[in-house]
Write a structure and sequence with these properties.
Shape of chain A: globular
Strand order of the largest sheet of chain A: 4-5-12-7-6
Strand content of chain A: 5-15%
Distance between the termini of chain A: 54 Å
Largest interface: A-B, 112 and 113 residues
CATH superfamily of the largest domain in chain A: Butyryl-CoA Dehydrogenase, subunit A, domain 3
Oligomer: homodimer
Number of helices of chain A: 20
Structural class of chain A: alpha+beta
């Protein structure tokens, strides 16, 4: 039977064979750790997830969240798990110990989180959600604000939030109308309504600190006139004790397709004219500050989608190995029934899923190493290189993992057949829960615009070039490996074409025809994501081939052979489709832009 | 505002401009009709759907189905609509009047059904579901059976069903264990358990006649030993009156991701040893007979998915025209907000959706004309040609429309953003309801195997050749049209490649390497579906171009221009991806087949 949630062997492979995360323990910052302590923490996370989180995942979905008189109740079964989660100090794994974290390297933290988030995303998100708020205070707050808020948010003693969206300001944040007026005591009176607020209100914490985007009366229109405020549910006194209930109230929760355990709140601020907020940073700096949180959240959402995919793949693999149905296609009619993993079409789906789950895991962990490398960089040049790659990859992690993660869930449902559609089995929840990842924290389309208009042109294309060079290096190495030589040129070709297509798009967005380029932005994001998957899978296969050449045995040998075969499958089967998609982009059809609005339908 | 459910202008275009359905009224069989009566019936269907069916679609989803002591209750709001549906005689539109139908040509019937099924699939399916059972009796029953059952099933006075699946016999029907033993009176005693039985039991009809697949004691194993029986809920006396309650009982219903209004039943037959059934046809002919119903059901399931797509597209189009968000990309920062249909990425999604909805509508209506043409054929050659195309297209209608229909729903959710994920808006239900179409009546994988192993090789590839020739004829015509000449070669190339790839696959399935071919069966089905979309859209554009050349004015001119632009978009943007997919198939990777089972994961 395959493992639940995530494949531990694969996690170890990425952390310690592909990425050499053990090397980090030579750095001063991580000197407390060694391979053994890393293993211990991941084991603990896994045990906790299997024992406490996964078993209540379906119940949380079934029970959902309730709202009565402004009080939001999470599924009752979450309370015990939440308490244990805080006790286990799982909330801010890569923050310093003195601030309530564990001081782990970010990629090792992600490995542990794979089990925690994969085990029960809705439940643990209540505890994890304060980190982003805390980070903004740590980076932009006054010493007093830091003292009052950071540790309490990192440890989830208090929850955090993210109050951006309004009914008329979704993707267009700059259209927001929530207003702030400075009070005599330096606080601000806030009034407005925010919608789609994940975990905006709930009964798991003593206090909730909501970061709120608002416009100070008289500030400029659009994004440049936006400020950010901390609005505590209970006012926080200078000594850290809790004071009056603030005038921020949940006035509605959404009924949704999925993530039923997660409270999606409408928050009314200043309904009684008594909502107070504390300015974070300076007036009109709100967007700049919020983007720190936003980028973290985007990486988190892509990661969420990936965990749904990993969970679904492992379930589907177990099912395909156990479900007996049909005969082997090359055996006689009187031969016995076989597990469905013997059928070519089921294998095609499983291998497609495995390729993407493996590829996304490597991509996510790799991107997390960039966060560590930015912090550890010894020169500006080094730092800029890593930061550039991190910025480039952020919209990819968000939108590509959301998109392919969802498709993995859909494939898993196909493997299960009719059972996959039934609530008695776990897949349909994974599929429903995963879908939100393409929508919140900026839709796929917003990520694609970010990639095209900012990320691939931001530094004159330098980061894109750095990335493509790494892909080519990996392909070149694969060409020297017998088992990979035949499929390596596909990766080479795809990376080359990706660069050419980016050139064309980059020129077009500088021209009056820029809309034409934006009509191909999301397909470009998809193609780039595919090339990243190809890169990651080939990198894995290069590593695995070395181990095989050195005479790996037993389960290791099986694992490494799987890596090589998965890479071969992806290069031969997926990349030709990607090349087709890049031809489609290169053709630069302007039809979608030219189509008269009336022509779309009567 | 765009229309709800379906675009009437487009329906008329397909029926009367693309397919010339009016010509059918010159046939003796359809001489009672004219364009005006066709219009009248479609209008009636639309009015009924908008007034009675669509308004209760969300309620049916929310309330769902209940089971208590073997009694299944549908959502109460269905009762009125069901009654009116029967009174309106909507159940068997293309059956003869004397059997309770309306005698309509099948494609005109589909046009009316677009509104009925699109308005509320779960509700009308209770009434439509008896047709398949009735058809089998009409084709294979004794004169007495016909007299007793056919009209009552066609008019939905009695409901029908489809009892195939068992816990250990899903895709592998031949593994079923339900047993039949002949009684002295010529009836059979049936015992067994069937699962996933759509509408197996409910409270909308006086009686339910369940066709049941079972094995007569001592019959051969596998599919060749299967017989089919009619098992009435209430025994039907020779005079047509209802007798004793039969021993067929609903013992469970499934909780599912979607189609909550549809009862998915576990049916226990002979739990008290008193289930009686009537043999239909001869013993061991069950599969042959059932396949008549199966093919009808497969066309119906593809049609269901298409209606979800059409409904979703129209909702998304309305939303995109009304939702104000963001500035026009080429206007200044101080310009006013615009409806999101102005944004290139939204246009890309909408045009992709429109292309597929339009293409699927043409494909489905066209396939229905084949049914009429088979019946009207004057020579064997003609009949074989049409039957061959019908057989070839059936798995495509089923699986391609299910697959792309679902993707349209997903795109519609992206257009809605966060609102799309909320139950307050209609899209998330469409998405959930649509997903089942890839699963029931044979999964996508089963359809792909049918296409590859039977349909493209069945007549030495003649039907595939006939189809490809029609595509080439359409492309050749487009080359003579100025607005289409530039994109027509893409269609030509895609059709040519599709034939080549089929040759390769056909040879491989005749070799010992046949599994390799099956690992590419579903991608081949997808590619073929894309080529069919290209064909249909180019055919539409050819017709529209002629009308434009003749000086079409006003709304017509707008509509025709939309056809040309949609074709241009599809040929330039989608077909290059399809060509990429065909390269992937042609590369014939054997990795999925070769992968050791253990390599999929530990």
């Amino acid at each position: 039977m395959a493992q639940l949630i995530a494949d531990r062997r694969d996690i170890d492979f990425v952390l310690f064979e592909q990425l050499d995360s053990e090397a980090l323990t030579k750095e001063e910052k991580y000197k407390e750790f060694n391979r053994k302590t890393f293993d211990l923490i991941i084991n603990e996370a896994r045990n906790f997830a299997l024992k406490e989180l996964l078993p209540i995942n379906a119940e949380g979905d079934r029970i959902g969240v309730t709202l009565e008189d402004g009080v939001v109740k999470v599924p009752p079964c979450y309370h015990r798990a939440h308490k244990l989660y805080l006790e286990g100090e799982w909330t801010s794994l890569s923050e310093p110990v003195e601030l309530g974290g564990q001081g782990l390297p970010p990629n090792v933290a992600r490995a542990a989180s794979e089990y925690l988030v994969g085990g029960n995303y809705c439940c643990v998100n209540y505890a994890n959600f304060g980190h982003g708020t805390g980070k903004m205070v740590q980076l932009f707050g006054t010493p007093e604000q830091k003292k009052l808020f950071v540790k309490n948010l990192y440890t989830a003693k208090w929850a955090g939030g993210m109050l951006l969206t309004e009914p008329e300001a979704g993707s267009d944040v700059g259209a927001l109308t929530t207003e702030a007026v400075k009070n005599d005591d330096g606080t601000y009176a806030i009034s407005g309504t925010k919608i789609f607020i994940t975990n905006g209100e709930h009964d798991l914490c003593d206090n909730i600190i909501s970061p709120v985007l608002a416009r100070v009366k008289g500030a400029p229109e659009g994004t440049k006139g936006i400020s950010i405020f901390l609005v505590p549910k209970y006012w926080v006194n200078p000594d850290g004790s809790l004071g009056d209930r603030n005038d921020i109230v949940c006035t509605g929760i959404e009924e949704k397709m999925g993530i039923h355990g997660s409270a999606t709140c409408t928050m009314t601020l200043g309904g009684k004219g008594q909502c107070r907020g504390i300015l974070l940073g300076q007036e009109n700096q709100g967007m700049k500050i919020m983007f720190h949180m936003m980028n973290e959240a985007r990486l988190g959402v892509g990661f969420q989608a990936f965990t749904h995919a990993s969970v679904s793949y492992n379930y589907a693999l177990n099912y395909a190995r156990e479900r007996m149905q049909g005969k082997d296609l090359t055996a006689g009619k009187d031969s016995p029934s076989v597990p469905i993993i013997r059928h070519p079409d089921v294998r095609r789906m499983l291998l497609w899923m495995k390729a993407h789950v493996d590829g996304m895991r490597s991509f996510i962990y790799y991107t997390e190493t960039l966060i560590a490398k930015v912090a550890l960089a010894k020169t500006d040049e080094e730092r800029l290189r890593y930061q550039g790659l991190l910025d480039l990859f952020t919209p990819l992690i968000k939108a590509y993992c959301a998109q392919r993660g969802f498709t993995v869930c859909v494939q898993a449902m196909q493997v299960y057949g009719g059972y996959g559609y039934c609530k008695e089995y776990p897949i349909e929840q994974q599929l429903r829960d995963c879908k939100i990842a393409s929508i919140y924290e900026g839709t796929d389309g917003i990520q694609a615009m970010d990639l095209l208009a900012r990320k691939i042109v931001m530094d004159g294309g330098k980061s894109l070039g750095n990335f493509l060079q790494m892909v080519q290096d990996t392909a070149a190495k694969a060409k020297t490996v017998e088992a990979l030589a035949a499929c390596a040129p596909n990766l080479e070709k795809a990376a080359q074409r990706l660069g050419q297509v980016a050139d064309g798009l980059g020129k077009t967005i500088m021209s009056p025809d820029l809309k034409k380029a934006f009509a191909h932005a999301f397909p470009y994001l998809e193609s780039m994501g595919d090339v990243i998957m190809g890169w990651m899978l080939m990198w894995r296969a290069n590593v695995a081939s070395e181990k095989l050449a050195k005479g790996a045995k037993g389960k290791d040998e099986v694992f490494y052979r799987g890596q090589v075969k998965t890479a071969e499958f992806f290069m031969q089967t997926v990349l030709p489709c990607t090349l087709g998609q890049m031809e489609s982009i290169a053709a630069m059809s302007n039809a979608a832009v030219e189509m008269d609005e009336a022509c779309f339908g009567s």
